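can u do me a favor
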């Protein structure tokens, strides 16, 4: 296999695929995907993608204002402006590629409302928008002759060289290397650092940990969004998200007495932004002494519910609840990372020619709290920013590739079990929705110890070891910021 490329992209979610599609066809690209192409957070996105596209009563100023309000005005106004201004271009671009957004009976694109948005501006494909976008991007990228896609191929290490980057990869148990002038990290989120998350199992923060290891600035990793309404069956680690749009369509939140309670915490009631609702639920749990909470949309027309939320309806029904007839149990869980590898408006990190986009990056658009449906948009807008910058710089690259050497595995032993479980438990106990100050310090010391063990002892390189190392680095960075 050839092993030199103009660009290596780690990650095949919305960000990585759209980045590849927007690079020039003269650019030789390697796309790495840790598992199969459809296993990622992008595939799980339900509610939709926010955009001011062919507006009626909407404007980019309003979209910007809503984004800033949700983010507590801690957003970067410059990147927010780029986000809202470019939205119409990206929507048109994915429509042209064939994304099948829902339409009204008269053929107009249907726009729905979600918490924190002052206008109906969420474009969606039923309640599985991410899968619809991802399928289209996968189909498109597979037609591109300049792009080599390697599924089930994990980036296990990354080094900076004099001419760019060297990547160590693991595929079918075999290690190999590839080299490039530019690197685009699109490795997604960190949800698997918590016991309960909506994230797919690939979300172990590998790209963030590797960028940190080569000196890139990481910012605001403690800004984690806990989604208020994950279906709560108390035993699966990957929790089904009950989309914000269910509240947007009128569902009520109920406490353990099956009473509405949001009026005690925020005048926007169920449509308050996510952080406010999650915080309210955890505070209400303390007030009532119970973590039993429910979401109730059963007063709406059953046919509307089944048509509007077919995926949620079927999944919840399979677990014994008919949402057209009764409230369903919910509780907050980890959902999204606002922080990440810090990038500028062109998606470039503090390491020259190292780019990052999507959930692993910190563009600053979300501030303290992401507005619903802004992340798919961020993934598209800022992966294209990276692609544009890389294409402008390509002609300045040398013809040669320096190749970094990765350490040989000497006396490597298998990773003992238990590290990942322990990290997840420490994070869930100490740093969930409202951090527990008493547990934070002990948790931090223990995660530091685990990280030291994993980085100084010699373990066999497999996905379990690489992910454990990533989780330890991410846990260390989060708790360091919180303490
Ligand atoms: C349940 C759920 C619902 C959501 N709903 C919405 C919504 O309605 N609207 C919205 O805007 N956002 C939503 N989000 C958030 C949004 O889906 C994500 O933020 C966004 O899709 C992230 O895209 P990404 O490309 O950055 O990461 P991902 O889509 O997660 O892709 C990451 C990619 O990186 C690869 N990867 C990771 N590590 C490695 C490695 N070491 N080597 C090689 N490859 C690697 C993975 O295999 C994967 O291909 C939702 C998220 C979840 C979990």
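np, heres the sequence
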């Amino acid at each position: 296999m050839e092993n030199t490329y103009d660009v290596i992209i780690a990650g095949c979610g919305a960000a990585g695929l759209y980045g590849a599609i927007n690079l020039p066809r003269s650019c030789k690209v390697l796309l790495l995907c840790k598992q199969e192409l459809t296993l990622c957070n992008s595939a799980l996105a339900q509610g939709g993608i926010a955009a001011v596209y062919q507006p009626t009563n909407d404007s980019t100023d309003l979209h910007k204002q809503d984004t800033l309000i949700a983010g507590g005005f801690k957003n970067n106004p410059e990147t927010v402006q780029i986000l809202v201004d470019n939205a119409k271009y990206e929507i048109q671009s994915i429509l042209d590629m064939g994304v099948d957004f829902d339409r009204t009976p008269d053929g107009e694109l249907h726009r729905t409302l979600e918490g924190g948005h002052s206008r109906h501006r969420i474009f969606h494909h039923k309640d599985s928008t991410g899968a619809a976008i991802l399928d289209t991007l996968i189909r498109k990228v597979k037609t591109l002759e300049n792009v080599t896609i390697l599924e089930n191929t994990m980036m296990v290490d990354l080094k900076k060289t004099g001419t760019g980057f060297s990547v160590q990869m693991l595929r079918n148990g075999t290690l190999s290397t590839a080299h490039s002038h530019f690197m685009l990290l699109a490795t997604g989120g960190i949800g698997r650092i918590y016991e309960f998350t909506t994230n797919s199992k690939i979300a172990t923060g590998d790209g963030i940990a590797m960028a940190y290891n080569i000196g890139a600035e990481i910012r605001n990793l403690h800004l984690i969004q806990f989604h208020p309404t994950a279906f709560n069956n108390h035993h699966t680690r990957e929790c089904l998200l009950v989309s914000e749009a269910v509240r947007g369509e009128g569902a009520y939140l109920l406490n353990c007495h099956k009473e509405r309670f949001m009026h005690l915490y925020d005048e926007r009631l169920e449509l308050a932004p996510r952080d406010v609702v999650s915080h309210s639920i955890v505070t209400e749990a303390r007030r009532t002494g119970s973590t039993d909470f429910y979401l109730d949309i059963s007063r709406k027309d059953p046919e509307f519910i089944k048509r509007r939320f077919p995926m949620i309806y079927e999944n919840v029904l399979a677990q014994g609840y008919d949402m057209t007839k009764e409230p369903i149990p919910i509780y907050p869980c980890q959902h999204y990372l606002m922080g990440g590898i810090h990038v500028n408006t062109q998606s470039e990190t503090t390491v020259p020619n190292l780019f990052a986009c999507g959930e692993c990056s910190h563009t600053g658009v979300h501030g303290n709290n992401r507005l619903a449906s802004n992340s798919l948009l961020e993934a598209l807008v800022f992966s294209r920013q990276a692609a544009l910058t890389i294409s402008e710089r390509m002609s300045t690259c040398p013809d040669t590739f320096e190749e970094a050497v990765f350490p040989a595995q000497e006396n490597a032993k298998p990773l003992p079990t238990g590290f990942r479980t322990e990290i997840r438990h420490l994070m869930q106990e100490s740093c969930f929705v409202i951090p527990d100050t008493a547990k934070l310090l002990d948790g931090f010391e223990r995660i530091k110890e685990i990280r030291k063990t994993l980085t100084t002892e010699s373990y066999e390189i497999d996905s379990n070891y690489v992910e454990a190392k990533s989780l330890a680095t991410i846990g260390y960075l989060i708790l360091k910021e919180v303490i």
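The chain has a mean pLDDT of 95. hope that helps!!
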